[in-house]
């Protein structure tokens, strides 16, 4: 067992990380620093302070990181139109690098030599936390209790809690799902979802109404972009976190952003997950729409071809890697002209783009028109264009190559 | 002007291609063979026979290509989950290579030395027709009247038609949109769509009801896949064309598959297009879902990374190119295990996957479970996995590289 | 410690794997089956039989796999023009999947429940052996003694050998380098090479003369290709292994194929390696040359863009993965027309292509000529080709986008 | 024929562009401005002044662009390790964007409304000149005489020259090859090279001795890099153009940098080209070597995977495109740590890396060593690393998927 003096724990204030807190103190005979962040998960973070104190913690960090989260993590990712495996908007993945960064920074401030987290040994989050920590502080020790301890069943965990006088909240039934939430999304795993043929229960979803329950009238909104990021909603300037929170509220009310998928974890297994990402779903659609009129074709295609790789990097926990930053340089270099307004219709689960305009638009109606274009485009050029693009295939066909 | 003896014309029977027919006869003093195909566009093709006869055509080809179209073009493309620019399902693009192939085959049968089509000099379709024709018959002459003639306005075209006694159908108002349809989709361009800020009028859409008008009750369907292709709907075996036609009907009734985008044409301009692809929208969602449980992670990611390139090849008219066929080999090589059933919920514009099952499933609940896995997975392995994946970043950080 | 009944050991007959053999018997109290393969490493394999017998082995497999190795592993890889990190011809990497396959097959035949190898815990070879074994027999146990035992220094290893009466050959000095050889190459690591600034000693190299010592006269050879593979040398038909062995001899005599690089291992560290790949160096150059006249441009470019990924897969040990096989399908689909003859000049370390010809050549002198081409190519087509390719950039520039 | 007032001509001072000069004056009745650049082609540029004056040119631009050429075009390209089709170092391609830029700038300065060049309608250079011109000045007219005039044979050209008193230099025999040269390379096309089976004559090569004629003693050099660019040779600081010129001299003297290939032109045909790139060949090898110890693995692999696309962009003339600049942003973002010294041995055509060192080295001998590493690396981590990387393949194999 490694020699540890002080460990910074990513602490939610809930039962599991409270047990971890105590277990760290006992097992490593070390001091524990707690770090609790408000990333928009929708639960109060301040109560974690009293709980940590009760457990004997002296250094307690409780922080509101919502703006930093959206500005420096969510928005850069949306510039890439990142989607993992064609569906998943990376809501959990994108929060981990920020937590890893703060864990390391607090370790530096408090002189801690280790960090710890409550992610299991089967999931992606352990990888995301730890790759981040190692990339930012190579000598750091990482303690992942779920990979080490013998509290491998719910019963044992509860028994440990009782033994150590850790309060177990018994108000209401415990959710059968493993959940994670932040300003970008809420996720559900486990329970009946472990059967991929079983439909998710309506009662599971927390952030959005069912499309069936959404209003019968659509709502139209306008999103303004500057350099690829949303800066205003319906003409009103908003901070990154505010705009995302607002879109979550509107989107959720209209039944937008539910997703039910089987995804491939980095550790090698498939897993079923359900997600609600109301604001992100709107944001992605809108960003693509503003790019559609402002971005050069080949710039857009280059982004599209590299997007799956960029998304995998984030999913797999490589936010702090040099290759993610290289790709980000390339993506950001494309976003200067991505300015303008997108108009969207939200209705019972649907997000439809109905208009887009920009002072940086490359859409040229005088060229694209079916009407007379006054010579803006010479149709005869197309003959040569096609002829030369066909030349290699014509030569091959003339040599008898079957097409 | 090239010397032409006989030309095969892609003939719809409508006004424009009737004018082209006459213009070819006059301009090139050549015989015209007409080719009219039923690709599921929803209009009768047989009336083209009488029209062609009236215009003096002796060799008339009228063919039902619906099964070949879906089986050999649409389905292979959907194995790739192909989407152009993140949105467009390539409905027009995928029909052109089949028409090009038949034009060339008929030219070979009839001894024609040229082919002709009614696509304009500004669009993608001219490229798709002609690249196909050149790839399949390198010495073929291609006549693209819209790039050659001086009938550059509607007025001149109508005048020419009247002069040459070509019947102009005047029942109802002419649509303000340029449209194209086949079993996969119907498309709209032109008119008010030339302003990308203007919302499409509800009256424009032809294949689907508005989500607002769709039934208040969802419908659930099950699609069965064999080697990546749909083979049955709700347990009933169906031919490729039948399944797509049926999905169009169901999807359209539920307001599914409308799309409004600005896309980048291969000839260099941006253009606004609206599309209805009810069946294709369902098909894409279902195919991804069945792949999600049957396809290896890296196989799926490789497909995802190459998909944009594959989609561009089809969009740009390179179906008959060696590189498209190479990619198809790779894609098809992955589809043997893509078998099973996907359950979907259709409701007012939404297609939601609610279940998927397969005898070839790689989803292993005994490993993925949050419950005790009886040793199927050793969580301690994750520590080494992360440590070695982090090693290069740790070395860099230890050298002072800022992450 | 896992319960093991019988283990198949990749056995070279040398000291290290003899110690492993004994250690396995002692540590696991299990039966050991030895497998020794001739992959063209240039050492007799038959002596391994007596050594294994002395150590009490009853089931001894000694096999000549040279033809299978070149035909089914080396040649498919060369169809891809695979090079890792711009330089390395993957000589060690490509042999491992074949050994993994035979280990598993022998385990199946002999009823063994484990396999074992002599690769260390720092290198790539452990990964290659084990990924192969797991992919081919998921329940197999893998024993990697270097990761388990405490014989972590040369001294301890020798002491163990003496204790257990394992003969230590003392003829000549032990090489300071860690070496690996097969028909494709010989490699050197360790010793002074661990300083990347130190030049390799001339005495290290074993397969090739220094360019300075090579003949003063060049030699010309002709290689004939069929479907991407070499089938004849100077017009004489040769089996895969024979052609590679012959090219090694000729190439080595002319000082061809030495390489000195720092490469990135899959386990996360950089390492210095020196390689001699005489035949492979010639083969790669020749294959590119025959492709240059027989392969379509875009087919070639697609191969080039995916090559680094394909090479990484082989380097990292993923030969038996679905994604490698998908890429191989794509590559092989391109090789049908890769037929013809390449003429090369070999001189003091240089391999120069001086001629290439093929019945499947796409080189068309009548089009490419600087002389009059009799109308085979209409130069005016180029104007339209350029105009439309420039259109998107012209529109952007007209909007004030700085290029 | 377009209405042209003043045209800027890329003027070499040779016969062909002198004929073009006169032909432009005659055909377009316009003023001609000449632009002659020293890009290191090895011919005096000053004599072009008198010739242009004789032909009545009033505005004559003669410029030494060597430093700008190497600093802003060659060096950025080498940061990418760009090679087209596995072999070609892009010597001609990389000079064209600079010429296009100066043509446009001079057009702006002199109020010209057109530019002109002497590239033929079959080659890549017309595309490179014109895409650059259009991207930088969208309304510019481009005149490509070789695509327009009827001087389609050498005889007609000479006759035109005589008619118009254009001096034809008859000293020595005209080379049978079409050549292009600048500081990066000299190229040869045409003549007997149009037969790809014919070996290039020794007399053709101008910049390098044959390896057979090179010194019998090798020479060692050291190249120092800063942020990916060479800044010193053997410890002596040098400007970009000086270092390249010096490497050309040394490399040429040692028979380095000859290349004989069949390449795929952007306009659709294959063509045979021979190239001498002595300095560039050394530079590429050295840059890869310094990257090998200073660049992160995944950063290097990302560069390698995108390199073919980057190289094609330059080959095809898209230097001034947004996608080339996006890729450049990504590449340049990786080069900050690419600092250090590479030691190379040059001998009769061979460039061998024999050492590399850097303060930014990521090579860590204490980890990579075959000797005892004092715990820097825990070999047991490899077991978990392999197990999880194998997991997806094990699950598939357990389901009966054949590997």
From TrEMBL, chains A, B, C, D:
InterPro entries: Arginosuc_syn_C, Arginosuc_syn_N, Arginosuc_synth, Arginosuc_synth_CS, Arginosuc_synth_type_1_subfam, AS_cat/multimer_dom_body, Rossmann-like_a/b/a_fold. CDD domains: ASS. GO terms for cellular component: cytoplasm. Keywords: Amino-acid biosynthesis, Arginine biosynthesis, ATP-binding, Cytoplasm, Ligase, Nucleotide-binding. ATP binds at residues 10-18, 37, 118. Pfam families: Arginosuc_syn_C, Arginosuc_synth. Residues 6-167 form the Arginosuccinate synthase-like N-terminal domain. It is an enzyme of class 6 (ligase). Belongs to the argininosuccinate synthase family. Type 1 subfamily. Homotetramer. This is Argininosuccinate synthase. It comes from Acidihalobacter ferrooxydans.
